[in-house]
Amino acid sequence: MVNKIVSEDYADIILENRVIESVAAKYEAIFINNRYSMVNVPVNLIDRCSIEQFGYQAFPFCYTAQASSSLNASRVTDVQRNPSLGMKGQGILIAVIDTGINYLHEAFIKQDKTTKITSIWDQTINEAESATNEMGYGTIYSKDVINFALRSENPYSVVPTTDDTGHGTAIAGIIAGNENRSENFSGVVPDAEFIIVKLKQAKKITKEMFCISENTVCYQETDVLFALNYAMKQADRLRKPLSICVAIGTNQGSHDGRGILSSYLSEISNHAGMSVAIAAGNEGLARKHYYGLLDPRGEFNEFQVRVGKDEAGFSMEIWKASPYKVSVDITSPSGEYISQVYPTIRDCRVFNFIFEPTVVWMNNIISEGETGDQLVLIRFLNPAEGLWTFRIYNLDEEISDYHVWLPAKGIVSEETYFINPNPDTTITSPGNSVYATTITAYNVDTDSIYNNASRGLTRTGLLKPELAAPGVDIICPTNGSNNSYGTITGTGAAAAHAAGINAMLLEWGILKGNNTGIDGVEIRSMLIRGAERVPNQSINNIWGYGKIDIYGVFEALRR
Fold it and tell me: pTM value?
C-alpha cells in the first residue's frame, strides 16, 4: 500500500474540518487538530491554478532554517547559582523540530553514557519494516533504542538518523547541551531532555505550486504541524512540561498571525505546561519586502523587482487590508505588458510571454479565506533577468497601504530583490503568531541588534518581536565527528536561547510548585516585565521590549 504522506504522487492539502466532508468521499482525511485536517490528492489532478479550487492556505507553506553556522548576558548563570532558584531544566522536555540531531555528540549524552533524548521521530526514514508508527510515516526511535545504539560498535546500524545540515544539532545544543568548560560551552538548561523531530523535505508538488526550485532545501507546513502533535503527545505520555523551539520561518502568508501554523502555535502557547519560542527571521536587510501607500489623487503606485540571472522561478504576494481593493499590471524587462488584472472571488490568469521564456500565474483574490483581506499571488516560472515593473491601481477613493513580499532567503536568490525595499514588517511566519513569543537576535559583544534580524510590526500592527536574545557567534555542538564545536548566528540561535529560558520558568512554576498552571502566555508576560530595556531606546519594532533577562524576572516578582 502506498504511503500517501511521503509519496511524490500525492499533494498534501490542508482543509478545515467543517468543509472536509465535501471531499471526504474522494480523499481520505488525516486529522491535524480541532480545526484542520489534511487530504492527499493525486498530483495529476493538481496544477498551479488549483489554488482557485482549494484556496491559498490549503497548500502547505515552505519553511527554511533561521540561523547559520551567552549565558551571562541573559543572567542565566545568576539564576543557576542562586540556591533558591538553581533551575537547569530538571524534569522539562525540549521539543526541537528541525533538521535532526547528532545524537552521538557528547552534548546530548549523560555522565552514565545514556542519552538525553526521550525519542527521535525521523520523518525521512521510511523503510517498510520500521516505518509503521503512531504518526503514519517516518521512523520513531525510542530512548531505549537510542541507548542500545550508543552501546553498539556501529550506532548508525541501529539508529541511522543524522542531521544533514547541523542546524538542529546547534539549536538543541544551545537549549540544553551538556556543559563543556574547555569549549566555554553550556546549554541554557543542561538537565532538560529532548523530543527531536527531523523534518522531511517538502514534496516536489508543494515546491512546484509556488515555483520553488526542486533543489531548494525547505520544509513543509503539514510536517511541522504533525511534529507539534507528536511532541505534545510525548509530553502528555511522560507527564512533563514542554518547551518548544521553532527556528524555521517563511515569507509566505499574511504576516499577521492568522496563518494555519501561526494560529496553532498561539493555541499551544495557552496550554498549561507548554511554551513556544519562535525565531523572528533574518530578513531585515534581505530586500524582500516592499511597502506602498496609495493616494486617492494618484491613479497608481509603482514598484520594481530586480530579478537575478538564472532565477528558475519564485512567487510574490501582495496583501491589501479589507475593504480596500487594488488591480495590478506588469511590465517585463523587455517591455511586454500584462494589462490590469482586477480582483475576483476565484480566478487564475495564466500569461505566456512572446519575447521571453517566462510564464506568469496571477490570482487576484478579493477575499482570502483565512483573513478576508485581498491577496494578489503572482508566480513566475523562468522569469527574465532584469527589472520588472508593477503598478498597483487604487480602486477606492481612499488613502490606504499595501505590503508585498518575495520569498525568504534560501528560497529565492539574493540577486532577486525590491529596488526600494522596506526593512520593517519582515518577521517571518510563524513569528507573527499572536500568543507565542517571538525572539530577535543581538550581539552580546557589541550590545547591538543583529544586522540581518527581521523587524516588526506585524501587518496588522501587533508588536513583534517581543524580546531579544543572544544570537551572534553562539558556541554550539556541530554534526561533525569527534564531539566538535562551532558557532551559529541568527534569530534561530536566539530563539533556542529563549526556549531554554522558557524551560527554566516551566521548572520554577510547575516542578518547584510556584505556579503549577503556568503557560506560554504567562511566561511571555513575565519575561517582558523582567526584560532589560535597551539604553536610549523605547519599546520598538526592532528590540521589542528589550533584552531577555531571566534574573530580572525574579527581581520584578519581588518588587
Answer: 0.95
Phi/psi-derived region of residue 490, left when phi > 0, alpha when psi is between -120 and 50, beta in every other case: left
- Using CA atoms, how far residue 467 sits from 61, 213, 493, 529, 531, in Å, is 26, 34, 13, 11, 8
State the virtual CA torsion across 110, 116, 118, 122 in degrees, nearest 10. Answer: -120
Give the span between the Cα atoms of 463 and 200, in whole angstroms: 32
Cβ atoms of 279 and 64 closer than 8 Å: no
Contacts for 43 with CB less than 8 Å, ≥ 6 apart: 8, 9, 10, 11, 205
Q: Position 148: which residue type? A: F
* Contact criterion met (CB below 8 Å) for 454 and 283: yes
Return the CA Rg of the chain: 23
CA 134 to chain centre: 24
Backbone torsion region of residue 304, taken as left when φ is above 0, otherwise alpha when ψ lies between -120 and 50, otherwise beta: beta
Written as tens digits, the pLDDT of the chain (559 aa) is 568 999 999 999 999 887 776 665 678 888 899 899 999 999 999 999 999 888 999 999 999 998 776 445 555 655 666 666 667 889 999 999 999 999 999 999 999 999 999 999 999 998 745 445 788 899 999 999 999 999 999 999 999 999 989 999 999 999 999 999 999 999 999 999 999 999 999 999 999 999 999 999 999 999 999 999 999 999 999 999 999 999 999 999 999 999 999 999 999 999 999 999 999 999 999 999 999 999 887 789 999 999 999 999 999 999 999 999 999 999 999 999 999 999 998 889 999 999 889 999 999 999 998 999 999 999 999 999 999 999 999 999 889 999 999 999 999 999 999 999 999 999 999 999 999 999 999 999 999 999 999 999 999 999 999 999 999 999 999 988 789 999 999 999 999 999 999 999 999 999 999 999 999 999 999 999 999 998 877 899 999 999 999 999 999 887 6
Question: Do 101 and 120 form a contact (C-beta atoms < 8 A)?
Answer: yes
Strands (E), 180-310: 193-198, 219-220, 242-246, 248-249, 274-279, 289-294, 300-307
